[in-house]
Structures are given as structure tokens and as C-alpha cells.
Write the C-alpha cells for this entry.
Amino acid sequence: METKKIKKYLDTSHILIEVVDSRLIEQTRLKELEKKYKDKLLIVATKADLCDKIEELKSLYSQIYFVNNKTKDGIEELKKKIIELAEKKMKKNKSVDIFIFGIPNVGKSSLINSLVGRKVAQTGFRAGITKAITWIKLSEKIRIIDSPGTIEKNQEEEILALGAAIDAQKIKNPHKIALKIIKKFFETGKEENLFKNFKIEKTTDFEKIIEQIAKKRGLYLKGGELNIEEACKILIREWQKGKIKL
């Protein structure tokens, strides 16, 4: 969903929650919207279970709430803040609407389920599970509005792919994205996780890593040539699903 289609909810809602990916905070933020609506905005980073640098990130991003929807770590703190803000808004309003937005597949619906305490929003790995605006009651006077993933105009495929906002099979240049993911593991000193996940030999040659993945998974084209493109898609998919922890 483009930003212009959710504008009325951004304008009329009393509290806005932008959901980002803990592994890719800067890449998954919708900064133009942050600037415009900063006075009523909370930023929440999900998928904290997929990142080993949470404590470091907390010191860097003191205004961002980090949550783990699996263990519920951070949920109570966030819920307390939401209720605190809602009570202030209720001094001028009979009820409060909270609009939750972010790029596709960043964990909006899982966050809503954690906040409400039961499954009220449909979740799944595939991008685009939420198809339309959905209203969910948090309490008698507080409503949460769930929205389909928001994509800014001309948003790069790389950002959407790394944030799992686009299915691996639909990526136009999987080789480029796969190299970016491998680079991230080496930059953060987590390349061992990559080798262990795919059960391949250690090497600093990114192209050889992809070739080894293709061999390990038995990915061959007719004539015996390695299917590099499919190996790249598998690497991307396993990154998106959190099978390879950063």
C-alpha cells in the first residue's frame, strides 16, 4: 500500500506506531513519515530474537522500543507507554485510535497479537498477509488499526528484499541481494553463522559461498551447471525467515 492511501489514518489517528526490523533499523524506517508525524509517533523494532546486538542497539536508539514477539520481551514496557500516551489523549477525546504501519512483513500483525494478548491479526512469513485496514479493540476506549505493508514511492528492491517485504522468488536481481547479505555477516563478524547454517567450508570469497550453497543443496541446471540464481534465492529466503541469525 502506498503512503498516500494511508494518509487519512496517519492524519486522524491519535497515536502512530511505526514498526521496523531490529536487524535493519535504518533501512526499514519510513523517514519521510517520521518527520511529518514525529509529535505522535512511537517506533518499535520487532524481530529482536534475530539480532545479537540488541543491547548495543538500545544504547544507540534510546527512543526505539525493541520487542521479541516470541518471548514477549519488551511488550509490557511498550504497552505501558501506549496506555500512558492514550490516557493523555483521552483528556480531549472520548476514545483513542492507534495506527500501526511499516513496510510489508516487518511484524506488525505479530506485534498487535502480542499487545492484545491473543491472536486477532493474521500472521505468516509471506509478505502481504494483511490485505486491508483492520480495526482491533485493545480496551474499551482504545482501538488499534492494523494496515497492509506501506511502500514508499520508488523504494529500492534491495531494501524490500532485506526486510522480507518482497518474496525471494519475485526479486529481479537475487545475486546482488545475496552478496549484500553475505557482506552483512562479514561486517558484523557473524560469518560463522552463515557457514554453520549451510554446512559449507569457510571462505572469504563471496562468490564461492554461493557456489557452495548451490552444491550443498543440489542446485544444478541442465548440463550440470550450478543454478546460482536459485542458490541466491535460498540464501535470501533463509535470511528473511531468520534461519541465519545476525
About this structure: DSSP finds eleven helices and six strands in the chain.
